[in-house]
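In this section we walk through a basic example: taking a raw amino acid sequence and producing a predicted 3D structure, encoded as discrete structure tokens. The instruction is simple. Fold the sequence below.
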Amino acid sequence: MNKSHAISCPDISGLKPLPRDFYLQDTIEAAKALVGKLLVHCSPEGIISGRIVETEAYLRDDPACHASRGMTQRNRVMFGPPGHAYVYFTYGMHFCMNAVTQPEGIAEAVLIRALQPLEGMELMRRNRKGARDRDLCSGPGKLTQALGIIRGHNGVDLTDSCLIIADDGEKQGELVQATRIGIKEAADKPWRFYSRRYAEWVSRVDREYR
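The resulting token sequence is shown next.
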């Protein structure tokens, strides 16, 4: 983790990060509860934020989970304290961001899969090189690029750093539970969650769940 990424966000319109205890709940329940929350990056260029509209849960005994075969240098953050960001590079192209859940030593996390763009739209458009607003954050690699989340954010404390998840009291609406995307193992697990209310912003709306 780059020390510059450990700097706390200033008070943003009274928003407070989710408490550590939030990330100690059952990981599937945490994945559901994160839908509707705000992901905020206090970047050097300004505040960039979006509402979390889609998540996926990854459990320790889940073959699709990076930690299922034990600790490595890449996944070690997953084994650490809850409420930290697990950011990894994938497909040689983009970063994905997860929120670590469960007590230290139990490697589970929630992938932040899509956002509704909110604050810092011009920065997002620049970071995403002219993508349509609908497509700025409609996927895990897209949202990290839009918000400027990089490898240096791996391990930052989501309760007290430049990258936080907060609750502004907005209702999440009806949740849809569906299978996860882009994995080969345990692809039948219905551990992806998105809000029907914000369906226009998710990475994929499944016909069978419409």
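Looking at the output, two observations stand out. Strands lie at 38-43, 46-58, 85-90, 94-101, 108-117, 163-166, 175-178, 192-195. The two ends are 40 Å apart (CA to CA). In the next section we compare this with other chains.
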